[in-house]
Input
Amino acid sequence: MFNFFNLSKSAKQLFITVTIMAFIGIIVSFMSNGITVNNISIFICGFLAILICSCINYQFYKKYSALIFCIAFISLILAVFKLNPVISMAFVILAFVIMLANLVQKEDIKQSKTIFKILGLYLLLALPMLAIQNFSTAVLMFIVLIIVLFVTGVKKKTIATILTAIVLIFVFEILIMPYRIYRLKHYFESLISFDFMNTGAGFILFDLFNKFGIVLYILIFLCFGYFLYKGFKIYSNTNNVFGKILALSITLVISLQAVLHILASVGILPIKMLNLPFISFDGINFIIEMATAGILINVSNNKK
Output
């Protein structure tokens, strides 16, 4: 049973930080769409998710990592064939980082066969993502993968080879999609004309800045900065390899997603379809993001 006072100091601080961001998200949602049963239900489910996952020992996910990954993969395949209209990219990313942490713990990450296995698992998720035109999530997962490989001591030459191969796949995907070429052309024209701020319209952070000004903007920056700091601290203080990589991966996913969203919201990056974690009130994704934070809290509370 969840007991806030039994949490470690880091876990308490992390819980408070995520709660602040979630409350910002629900308040903004209420102001934009009004108070609805759907919004209240999502908010309650999100908090239940963080409370429940913070109580479940993170080792549980190691045991069921293959099953979780298979569910994510099947949901993507169904989405490719338009048989699954509702798919949570937050769940797909979580499934990937759990599987990644499990492989790093079980096998020698410096061996070629392990590298190929990890790369194969990434492509199993990334290729369907590209097929349903979710380029930004595939890029986010790839950045996390490269950082984890670097941190775990994989040779720089091997990382460079993987980086080159995946970038070529991304370039090919861009070239065969005319709308991506058009978007890049528009993006570079905006940069040259110093009009790139207008490309951020539609992102929640862009809208928040226009509605509430710089103060809320700074508060959100501070919250994500603190989340990143606490996440890395949990990573460095965790002894178990699975917990260590899981903490690092979750911290990177949330923080990088926020950074990419921020950069896109001011027009610096030409990407779409990335939520602002805990604040973009996007149904199932919000619930999974809260659950993900709960897992990180549990790692903080069980560092051995």
User: Anything to note?
Assistant: The CA atoms of residues 238 and 303 lie 4 Å apart. The two ends are 20 Å apart (CA to CA). The chain is about 75% helix and 0% strand.
